[in-house]
Design a protein that fits this description.
The complex is a heterodimer. By secondary structure, chain A is α+β, with helices and mostly antiparallel strands. Chain A has a single domain, classed as Mth169, Chain: A (2-Layer Sandwich), CATH 3.30.1280.10. Chain A is built from 2 helices and 3 strands. Chain A is elongated. Chain A starts with a strand and ends with a strand. The model of chain A has no long low-confidence stretch (mean pLDDT 94). Chain B is built from 5 helices and 11 strands, in the order E-H-E-E-H-E-H-E-E-E-E-H-E-E-E-H. In chain B, the strands form 2 sheets. In chain B, strands 2-1-3-4-11-10-9-6-7 form a 9-stranded mixed sheet, sandwiched between helices. In chain B, strands 5-8 form a two-stranded antiparallel sheet. Chain B is globular and about 45 Å long. Chain B starts with 6 loop residues before the first strand and ends with a helix. The mean pLDDT of chain B is 96. Classes of the chains: A alpha+beta, B alpha/beta. At the A-B interface, helix 1 of A face loops of B.
């Protein structure tokens, strides 16, 4: 059994107004060294697959078809093996 | 056409909330036939046009329209559209049309991060469509919007192609039809409020024409869209 952690964020070319608003709030904490705040979502799931490669393939398919919209979002997948 | 009176199918997803408004306008205000189509139905029955109404299908979980696209009825809607039938998606219905690929582009969160609910003016850019043919050219209409994610986005090639093929149907404007940033309620590229597919039978729009069709609600500018659909159904018969 594998465990996938999928992170979906707006593509870097697209303005993320939510990230901008949070960045302004961070700056009001005097944390001026913080920039490029982007907000996304994390999806976790278990994947029953015979190998890590196949688990990664399944995760990629569900990202492409459902979890991320390629017009505006990028995604990353991290696969871990779980007992 | 199934009978002498054209029938609109209004698709009902869990979370749709403008379905009854659309049904009421089509059936009781305009005198056409209408029926609800539950999202689990695998076929549309004998309808002449399909309305994907506004609302919050599946609670807007994941992305607006992303889950509704997988409802069984959507296969039938896609087939209906591919066979040339008229499909109009209003607000959440527009978002569903984008997610299922019947229309290009995607919807981002409003630039202001606020839900906007107000009347806007729309310049009808293209009055040569099956949905707008009854409007005089150069028309400006007053119709309400109510959405949190109506910020239309597409890549440069898509935008260029929409322009070249006259697929931008509505733009946010002032009351005289001037399109400017000041009248853009959500940050949409080119003030886009509604687009049509290349073939001309699938329209998506964020504003709510069904909320501007009953004289009791202060504007009847939206009803011409439903009348145009019917007029074109009859002339194509």
């Amino acid at each position: 059994m594998y465990h996938a952690t999928i992170v979906v964020t707006l593509r870097h070319s697209i303005l993320d107004p939510q990230g901008k608003a949070v960045e302004h709030a961070i700056h009001s904490l005097s944390a001026g060294r913080v920039s490029n705040v982007r907000i996304g979502k994390q999806i976790q799931c278990a994947i029953d697959a015979p190998s890590r490669t196949e688990a990664a393939g399944i995760a990629d398919t569900i990202c492409k078809k459902l979890l991320a919209n390629p017009v505006m979002e990028d995604y990353t997948v991290t696969i871990e093996e779980r007992a | 056409m199934a009978s002498s009176v054209p029938c609109f199918g209004v698709v009902v997803f869990p979370g749709s909330n403008c379905d009854h408004d659309a049904y009421h306008v089509v059936k009781h205000i305009l005198g056409y036939d209408a029926r609800f189509i539950w999202h689990k139905e695998p076929d549309l029955g004998n309808v002449d046009a399909v309305i994907l109404p506004g609302g919050f299908s599946y609670g807007d979980y994941l992305r607006t329209g992303a889950i509704a696209r997988f409802s069984p009825v959507m296969q039938a809607v896609i087939k209906f559209a591919n066979d040339g039938g008229p499909v109009i998606g209003i607000c959440n219905g527009f978002q569903i049309l984008l997610e299922c690929g019947l229309l290009p582009g995607a919807m981002l969160r409003n630039e202001s991060l606020r839900f906007v609910c107000k009347h806007v003016h729309l310049r009808i850019v293209n009055t040569q469509t099956r949905f707008t043919s009854q409007y005089p050219s150069g028309s400006v209409v007053r119709v309400p919007v109510a959405h949190g994610e109506g910020n239309y986005f597409a890549d440069d090639d898509t935008i260029r192609s929409l322009q070249e093929n006259n697929q931008i149907v509505f733009q946010y404007a002032d009351s005289t039809g001037v399109v400017a940033d000041a009248w853009n309620p959500n940050g949409s590229l080119l003030n886009i409020a509604g687009i049509i597919n290349r073939r001309g039978n699938v329209l998506g729009m964020m504003p709510h024409p069904e909320r501007a069709s009953d004289p009791a609600l202060g504007s009847v500018d939206g009803r011409t869209i439903f009348d145009s659909i019917v007029d074109n159904l009859i002339s194509m018969k």
